Structures are given as C-alpha cells and as structure tokens.
Amino acid sequence: MRPQDIVILLKIISIGHRSWQQRDLATGLGISVSEISVSLNRSQIAGLVDGTKKRVHRQALLEFLQHGVRYVFPEMPGSVVIGMPTAHSHPYFQEKFISVEKYVWPDSNGQVRGQAIDPLHPGVPGAAVKDPVLYQLLASVDILRVGKKREIETASALLKKMILQDPDDIIPLIL
Fold this sequence. Notes:
Blueprint: H1 3-15, H2 22-29, H3 33-45, H4 58-67, H5 69-72, E1 80-85, H6 91-94, E2 103-106, E3 112-116, H7 124-130, H8 132-146, H9 149-164
Parallel strand pairs: 2-3
Antiparallel strand pairs: 1-2, 1-3
Helix pairs in contact: 1-3, 1-8, 2-3, 4-9, 7-8, 8-9
C-alpha cells in the first residue's frame, strides 16, 4: 500500500453510486491515470476493492483505517505553516474538540496557520477543496494518524458512519 491508495479509495467512497472513470479520479485528485491504475491493482491485491476495481470493500477499508493507518502511514506534526485545516482543526471537528493547536496541510492558498501535517498525497488540499465529503474523510483519517484517544474514537465513529452507509446518503457534516 502507498498513501495515495487511501486517498483514491476514499474518493471512490465520496463518489457514491455515480458513474466514474479512472480519468475522473485522476482529474479530481491530481494523480495521473497510470498511478490510479497501479493503485487500484494494489488495492485489489490487498482485498480493498472488488475484481472490477470499481467497488470498495467498505468494511475492509474501515478496519484498515481504524487499526492500521497510524502504523503504516504515521505522521508527526511539523513546523508552523500556512495551509488548509485538517485533523481536529477541520471545521466539523472544531465543534467537537477544544485545542489551541491547529493542524494544516501545507498549502499556499490556505488561510490558517498551524503545524504541518503531510497529506497522504500532495494533491489532497486541491482535491479537498473540490469535494467536501472527501475533505471530511481525509481529515478524519489524519486524526487517526496524529490524534489522541478521544479524538481517534470520535473520528473512527464518523468514518464508520460515512464509509458503511449508503454512498448516496453521504453528505458532509460541515455546513
């Protein structure tokens, strides 16, 4: 597995039942079509997508995120930079947690100063701007990577709800 594999799988989750092609994923994520193809092959081998490479095995993905992502793709907050809020600094989680620390994906178009969290792929901030559901999913995954116990429990519960429910019922929980 590579970090962008998680981004691609979460993008497929955010698309729901709508039809998509690999080039749609590439455009939406800033990842080349060939990287998308190779990633889906890895995800199929890992049992995270079906044989068509169009359907995510949601329970398997959820289990991997909840129990493995922090060990496979660990992250330590870095220096203070301008960027896009992530983890507990995401607007949805700001209502849930009180923290003086801000975490951001470094992004020159960002509006917030905070400690840098390397995104799972460099295209994440741009993709998150275009897709609020994907943004919320990725911020939740970042909590699993850097959060404390209570934050992780809250993010896990949200991921379970968003990943396991009917894809067409997913709406971002930030408005």
